[in-house]
Each structure stands twice: as C-alpha cells, then as structure tokens.
C-alpha cells in the first residue's frame, strides 16, 4: 500500500475549517431567523395600513405581541421539557399540560362562579391559575420524570391517560354548569389571536420574563441533562432539582400560551423538531432562541398569508396542527420511540 | 478506597441488596461477579448515587455519597451504565467534551481541550472524533462513552458491564485498555462483569454476590476455585491454570 500524506493533510484541514464553519453558522442561522422574524412582524404591522391608525396599530400590536409570546412560551417549554425527559417526541401538550390548565380553569369557574372570575382583576386571576397549575403539575408529573428508568412508552401512556381524564372531567363539569357561566368559560377558551386582552398580555409578558431568568441560567446544565438522567447525575448535575425547576418553568409557560390562545397540541413539536434539525451544534444557548424564532416566523408568517392572501381568519391553528401532526407521525415512524 | 457498610435495597418485599459490607481498595481493578439478579448492578448504582439506598452508607475516597454535593462527587468518581441511548445528535468530540463538565461547568478552556484529546487518543478515537455518535458501531460507541468518563479525570471509575454487546476482540481490547488505565493512570476501576474469566485475568480483586449478599471476596487466585464458584453460580466449574491465569471451564 502506498501512503499519500498530502490528501490526508488536506482532509484534516478541510475538517478543521468545516468545524469552524459550523461554529459560525450558529450565529448566522440566528441572525437570518431574527431578520426574517423582524421583517414579518414589520409587514404584519404595516400592511394595508389605512383609516384610524390610533385604533388599528394598537390592535395589531396586541395581536402580534400575543403571537410572539405564544411562540416564545411554546418553543421554550417544548425544548426544555424534551431535554429533561431526554426524548424528542413528548411535549407538554402531548402529556396533557394544557388539558390540565383548562380543567383548572373550569373547576375555578364552577366553584367560584363566572361572575366572580370576570370581576377579578386579570393579574390576580391569572396569578391564581398559574399557581394552581404549578402545584398540580408538580404533584401529578414530578414522580414520572424523576423516576429511575421510566420508559418513554410509559410516559406517553400516562400523558394520554391524563389528557383524556382532564378533558373528560372538564367536559363533565361544563355540562353541569349554568349555561351563562359556560358562555363565560367558552369565551376564555376560544380566545384566538384576534381577541387577546391587553392586560392579560402584559401579565403574561411578566410571567414569561420571570421564568426565562432561571431557564437561561441553567442553559449549560440543560446541555448535560439532554444526555439522560444517569449521565447527567454522573456529571454532577442535580437532576431532581433541575427537573423540578423545569416542571415549574414549563407549567408557567403552558399556562401563558393556553391562556392566550387555548390548547395547541402539535405546534411545540413542530418548532422544536425543526430547531433540532437546523442547529449545527446542539447547545441550548442556540436551540432555544432558534425554536422561538421559528415559532414567531410560522405564526406571524402563517397568519399573514392566511389573512391577506387566502382571506381566512381563524384557520391558522388548524393548519399548524395539521403540519405538526404529520411531523409527530413522521417522528414515530422514524423510530425515535425506541 | 471505597467503603461499603451495611448497604441494603428492596423493591417491595424483595431484597435486592441485603446488608452488603465491603472495602474496595484504592488502585487496580475490582470486579463484581455473580449470577443474574444477584444485585451487582444495583449495588454499583448505589455506590455511584444513581440509586438511593434504603439502609447503610458508602464512602468513595472519603466522600459520603449521600451527603456530598453531586458536583464534588463527579470530580472524584465517574459511573457508566450499560445502556447509553442518546436522544441528542452529538459528535464524538462533543460527547467526550461533556466529561469536562464537572470541572468547567460547560465553559470549555484550553486545558479541557488537552484532556479531551488525551482521552480520545487513549481509546483510539482520533480518526472518529468528528463522526456523530449515532453513526458508530456498538463497540465504537462504548469506547466513546468510556472516553467521556476518562476525560472526567476522576480517581474512581465505575463501569456496569462494559463488555456488554462487545465481540471477543473488542472485549479483549476494552479490558486491556482498562488495565492500562489502572496501571498507567492510577485509577481505581470497579466493574460489574459476567465473564468470570475476564474477571480472573484482569482484576486485582473480585467480589462475588448471590441473592443480594456478598458471599466471597479475594484475589483471583483466592476466588477462582471450583468450590467457591459452585456456591456462587450453582454449577460445576472446572478451574485450569493456563499461562498463569486461572480459567474456569463450564461450557459442557
């Protein structure tokens, strides 16, 4: 065999520059996505701008603000959730988190009465719901995610059973409810981007900001947690504490997105899967913002296309759920459920 | 030195590990052998704080594993379990780089790079360093994970069935590498291992478990006797001395 040192040296060099290129492209990817997202937001705010600007602009700002916030909450909660459970298929919505939020809201309306809820100031009402959500999700889910070698199949099954149980119980209470109370409740659920209340948006921004701080500070631990429970304990990460913190963070984020637009099952899966495909090197410092930006692009862009080109108004969630559902089936078939 | 005192674990009414007390000396390779369900892996999990114990205590290099902060332990002891499924797509170099986390908290320094390169070289992973872990064969993947715990640069290394899924050639390579790590780098290595002959040829010390209890402990010369192994495995094992190693023959 003859040895030829030159190509070998070249290939080493090529590999080195290749690696460097990857490093750069994380930043480039973020920049490109940020520019696209900003451009879409700008177009959304200014397209066909006629008439009373003082009326139209704030309305559009609330709409675009709530879309950004939902993208942020869903993208972040999905990625963090998948990291601490070390899987790529389960998401908070698939595990029944938003069904739990709906159930809590139904129970509150049932116990306190719709009028009391309506007259309560938004921050108080939302704060109460978030606290309940955090408490219940800790009680219901913590054991599952702390467990020793709990299989993905078990978690998926528990998620489906919990989701069905919560939805069934909500439906039962809603049937027992006074019709006028039910109307109030329905108003809360079927909120869409077209009718978000400005105060709620501000409260939601505060809540999201509050949980972003601990999540961002844990970003390097999250890189380790994605390797699985045992490897992360070996590397000195406090798995119990991290899972508990992340459950709290995810509960708050799910509460925010569900309060703003109601339950959306597959959106998180869609943006998280895309983000994992796009980032060249798996680091939460990159994956989290990429997932959020992809969410903003698909929500604002999708809404823009549907409203302005197809003249539809509220079909965006259906389209997103459809595509997200396809991704879910694709992931299952690809055999990630090992 | 690893001191295990009165450690127990039960699942329901089933005692998986029953009041085990032992001392594993510092340096060299210690193998834990025994039939399926003897509690070997459970004991190793408790030593490495992956599993809380019901009773008793363990100290690794003087650190109590229940009360010492996890981060501090991770600089003294590394554990590798047998199934290592990754849900994340990582290159071999990045995986090995995670071994530095206990020391750098995720912020890589120049010193870390030296450790990573050394670990890669030690397990002959240089040419594979930029490949993705999920593209590797079982044996290569096993080596990548061993390189990760080697980069962790700990005095104590605990491995649960490191030969699992490896063919004869790779098993021998793995055991030679572990022997080298014990001799050259002065590591204390504890293995759970099924093949008594590998345990006999490569260990300094063997612990034999059965039904959750420790029933024998000693050097391979002391332990590799038909009478002892018959107690452990309930089968007749003839012992032959070949090239200075005591080999058990039990295939027929």
UniProtKB/TrEMBL annotation, chain A:
Gene Ontology molecular function, alphabetical: transmembrane transporter activity
Family: Belongs to the binding-protein-dependent transport system permease family. FecCD subfamily.
CDD domains, per database record: TM_ABC_iron-siderophores_like (cd06550)
Superkingdom, taxonomy of origin: Bacteria
BP GO terms, sorted: siderophore-iron import into cell
Protein name: Enterobactin ABC transporter permease
Sorted UniProt keywords: Cell membrane, Membrane, Transmembrane, Transmembrane helix, Transport
Subcellular location(s) of the protein: Cell membrane
Major location (coarse): membrane
Transport found in the keyword field: yes
Transmembrane stretches, start-end: 27-49, 61-80, 100-118, 130-146, 152-173, 194-216, 246-275, 287-306, 312-333
Entry membrane topology: Multi-pass membrane protein
Gene Ontology terms: cellular component: plasma membrane
UniProt source species: Arthrobacter glacialis
From TrEMBL, chain B:
Keywords annotated in UniProt: ATP-binding, Cell membrane, Ion transport, Iron, Iron transport, Membrane, Nucleotide-binding, Transport
Topology in membrane: Peripheral membrane protein
GO annotation (BP), single: iron ion transport
Keyword set includes Hydrolase: no
Signal peptide as annotated in the record: none
GO cellular component assignments: plasma membrane
Single GO term (MF): ATP hydrolysis activity
Protein's UniProt name: Iron ABC transporter ATP-binding protein
Organism: Arthrobacter glacialis
